[in-house]
Amino acid sequence: MPSDRDRPPVDEGLLSPVTVGHDETVTDAAYLDALVTAEVALARAYGELGLASAEAVDEIEAEFGWQGGLRGCPDHGVDLAALAAASVAGGNPVIPLVARLKERVSDDARAWVHRGATSQDIVDTAVMLLARNATSKVVAALAHTEVSLRSLARSRRDEVAAARTLTQHAVPTTVGLRAAAWLRGVARAKERVQAVEQHLPAQLGGAAGTLASFVEIAGPGAAADLPAVFARELGLAAPDAPWHTTRWPITELGDALVQAIDAVGKIAGDVATLSRTEIGELAEGSGGGSSAMPQKRNPAASVLIRSAALRAPQLGATLHLASALAADERPDGAWHAEWPTLRELLRLALGATAHASALVADLHVDTDAVARNLRATGGLIVAERLSLVLGPLAGTEAVSRLVSDAAAGGDLASALAASPDVIALAAERGATPRAFVADLLDPANYTGLAGALVDDAVALPGRSGARDAPRTPLSDQEENP
Fold this sequence. Notes:
Layout: H1 28-48, H2 54-64, H3 80-90, H4 94-102, H5 107-110, H6 119-155, E1 160-165, E2 168-174, H7 175-197, H8 212-218, H9 220-234, H10 248-274, E3 282-283, H11 300-324, H12 334-361, E4 364-365, H13 367-375, H14 383-394, H15 396-407, H16 412-417, H17 420-428, H18 433-441, H19 450-458, H20 474-479
Antiparallel strand pairs: 1-2, 3-4
């Protein structure tokens, strides 16, 4: 029988394929690296303030492989499996970690390992380091997705398609406007994650968030300066105050991650729907296969992204339940519930945004299918327009009867061309009835401000978009179809 040490990790991703290959920054090994990095950074902060000797700090750095605040201590040499087993007794990994770190350095250096800190200072700081590394990747993936969506929206700006509401054809839209809507969601999510990433704070408050231990060690002035110096060593934001039970750094991070997954989940849901065999308007560049049905080209990336989007909101809610309602100066269990929840949310965001980036970059639009579906209702896609244009002349009931007859199989164009009201309106505008009806039923003439909305969306930040250009009022469009 293999020993516990020889057994593979519990989670390699068999049940979470969306995260496979994208979660290396949030593994237990990465978290252990961050814990050691935080401990070494604290000793360095004491050194920066002239409290710890240069010799003691140098010894700590050398022993645990310090490579700077951004790279941390990947060569620390702490046994992960042994530390995890030892963490059970105290309820967190810092207690046994500190013992292991102290036994590896001299007495002089040992005095500055974890000095004055509480376990939560190190755990929370390590979580922020993990989050920084993960969110930078999420932002990069969203930025790549933005570029691809901007190109798609621009290139398909005027390609008319059927908009669907409550699963049914509604009015005309454009492929470009659909992509522009995706783009706006992704751009907003990227800004949100980026803003959170830039303000992830270090944690340093001592046993109950009063910094009393640091005052005792260094005096009030140095104790007040220590959190900012500690944060600077790690490349994190300086905390305004200890946030042991003021958990906005956790909930805001969680909310931003959920928003990012929501944004790409929307794209995935639309792609999955529009790639259905009977619709066929979109296709993934490299669809997945089936073990039993070789003819299938499954939208595998969309399926994986959607799986993350369905899980993320509940994880965000758990963070609010545990973090936002943390009791006392350190809660019993709520703090612990954050760790795997936030890690899983980071993991899903990494996987979902990476898959979305690849999906959108290689998304295929079937122009023929788009046009075929647009024609499917024989002109009923512009029924709203008929009511607006003909209703004041023929009456709402008469227009409704024409539409109902067409929906039952009648020839809408012929019925309209034979209508006395249409004949009169066509003559008034100098057109034959059939030419007037063809123009009236052309979906391309009823896309509203779709083109302008696309132009606004694809305009790069800081540059004037289509909103600066004059627009024709919709009423004028209807008067001059």
